[in-house]
Amino acid sequence: MYFTLLAGALLFADFGSACFPNGHAAKHLVGWTPPLVKPEIRRVPRPIQNKIAINNVRIFDGYEIGELTTIVIDGDVIGTDASGAECVDGLGGVLLPGLIDSHCHPLTLEHLGQMSSYGVTTAIGMGCSPEPACNTLRNQTGLTDFYSAGEIATSPNSTHATPPTGPPDLISNANQAQEWVNQRVGNGSDFIKLIAEANGMTQAEHNAIVYQAHQAGKQSTTHASDIASYRQAVISKTDIIQHSVSDLLLPVDLVKQIIANNQTVTPTLTVARVVNANPLFNPSGNGSFHNATLNAGIMHKAGISILVGTDSNLLNAGINVAYGSSVHDELENLVSAGMTPAEVLRSATILPARQFGLKDRGIIAPGYRADLLLIQGNPLQNISTTRNILRVWNAGLEYTLA
Ligand SMILES: *[C@@H]1O[C@H](CO)[C@@H](O)[C@H](O)[C@H]1NC(C)=O
Ligand SMILES: *[C@@H]1O[C@H](CO)[C@@H](O)[C@H](O)[C@H]1NC(C)=O
Ligand SMILES: *[C@@H]1O[C@H](CO)[C@@H](O)[C@H](O)[C@H]1NC(C)=O
Ligand SMILES: *[C@@H]1O[C@H](CO)[C@@H](O)[C@H](O)[C@H]1NC(C)=O
Ligand SMILES: *[C@@H]1O[C@H](CO)[C@@H](O)[C@H](O)[C@H]1NC(C)=O
Ligand SMILES: *[C@@H]1O[C@H](CO)[C@@H](O)[C@H](O)[C@H]1NC(C)=O
Ligand SMILES: *[C@@H]1O[C@H](CO)[C@@H](O)[C@H](O)[C@H]1NC(C)=O
């Protein structure tokens, strides 16, 4: 950091204009399409005064990688005017919007730091308890931005009800749905998470919770990793289905219903690889990572919106998926499933931003949050180059503890 700042200062002194030859980059990018959403104006701006001009970078616009240019970070957003900016050499690297993990379980600030160090600037928690403790992870300046479901909805005899991770408030009747959802919303859940599984909630319970979530103005999202659970999630019309199907190939009728319902899917192939290899989680041996991958490809090809999520969690939980680095595993897994590198990058940036109503992020454009990941290499030719991380910024603040 110190060295680069020094180099930037020298550059500024020797070749003054080199710091801001062409302002921000977005306008003249090949294939550039204007942002579909207007960034939200922050009501309470964060007290960040920095202004940084990153020279010598190529911007990924969601589709293509542009010519070498300069981009300005102004406070916590992308700016347009480089005057007075401190210069940083982008080293000819590629600048991506910060990555979004749409299925993770960070529990501490250290976990958010691990995510930051891998360029994951937004964490979408898929269940977290106790809720007041989870809320302490929110709005951490300079760290990965955290949104989450609180307690998960599951029923007494299900695997997910098992202590220590089982939630205290279990569902054993559809009539509990309204009060249960109110509790979650009252404690700050951004959306509602349900579990579909063998010995889990009834269809009536699923339907009631999804209905109540929508009444409360929240999206619902449902864990389902086998075909029977997928059917429950589809019938309930939940907004997002978590995981892929591991035990059978998806029949055409089910795929059609997912499309008709406009449901999004987060296949989490990274955790499918781990659980299907473990008899504890795949007792009858009927699940496979291969089937999960084929099904992710089938859904993508059918036009279903796919998000990048990992199920990253505490490594000692028995389902070992590491915070941050696993997002890069998932990008590779989804390319193996048949998506293009540009598609998986959109599934880790603009698509989840829209899905979760985070209108201030997901693309690199003036006014948007300066969540940025600078890498070396061309991710459109080789998705694994996203691992070659040079620098990371969370809302304009560089994360330097990588
Ligand atoms: C986080 O910040 C947002 C936007 O400024 C605010 O609405 C929300 O209440 C904050 N949450 C916490 C837990 O501080
Ligand atoms: C849970 O399982 C026990 C025994 O396995 C059974 O007696 C009970 O009825 C089940 N409860 C529910 C809600 O399914
Ligand atoms: C919030 O969560 C705590 C701990 O899980 C719980 O005791 C409390 O009832 C919840 N409050 C609301 C308003 O939901
Ligand atoms: C994978 O899917 C195929 C085709 O539906 C099925 O026959 C098989 O049992 C599934 N599971 C495994 C472990 O291959
Ligand atoms: C595969 O086994 C699991 C239990 O491990 C079960 O819940 C699921 O229904 C089975 N799938 C099929 C297609 O039989
Ligand atoms: C489909 O879902 C997306 C994401 O939730 C939403 O933005 C869009 O408006 C929905 N489309 C329709 C036709 O409901
Ligand atoms: C893709 O990039 C990774 C990370 O830089 C590198 O290890 C790998 O060799 C590259 N693969 C090819 C085919 O170039």
What distinguishing features does this structure have?
alpha/beta, 2 domains, Urease, subunit C, domain 1, globular, 402 residues, binds 2-acetamido-2-deoxy-beta-D-glucopyranose, seven-stranded parallel β-sheet, 15 strands, 12 helices, TIM Barrel, eight-stranded mixed β-sheet, disordered N terminus
Describe this structure in words.
- The protein is α/β, with parallel strands linked by helices.
- It has two domains: 139 residues, Urease, subunit C, domain 1 (Roll), CATH 2.30.40.10; 257 residues, Alpha-Beta Barrel (TIM Barrel), CATH 3.20.20.140.
- 29% of the residues lie in helices and 20% in strands.
- It is built from twelve helices and 15 strands.
- The strands form two sheets. Strands 1, 2, 3, 4, 5, 13, 14 and 15 form an eight-stranded mixed β-sheet that branches. Strands 6-7-8-9-10-11-12 form a seven-stranded parallel β-sheet.
- β7, α3 and β8 form a beta-alpha-beta unit.
- α4 packs across α5.
- The N terminus is likely disordered.
- The site of one 2-acetamido-2-deoxy-beta-D-glucopyranose (NAG) has 9 residues, from α6.
Helix-strand layout with pairing:
Blueprint: H1 2-14, E1 51-60, E2 65-74, E3 77-78, E4 86-89, E5 94-97, E6 99-104, H2 109-117, E7 120-126, H3 131-135, E8 145-153, H4 177-186, E9 191-195, H5 203-215, E10 220-223, H6 227-236, E11 240-242, H7 252-260, E12 264-266, H8 269-276, H9 289-301, H10 325-336, H11 341-347, H12 350-355, E13 372-375, E14 389-394, E15 397-398
Parallel strand pairs: 1-4, 1-5, 6-7, 7-8, 8-9, 9-10, 10-11, 11-12
Antiparallel strand pairs: 1-2, 2-3, 5-13, 13-14, 14-15
The structure holds 2-acetamido-2-deoxy-beta-D-glucopyranose (7 copies).
One 2-acetamido-2-deoxy-beta-D-glucopyranose binds at residues 130-132, 183, 186-187.
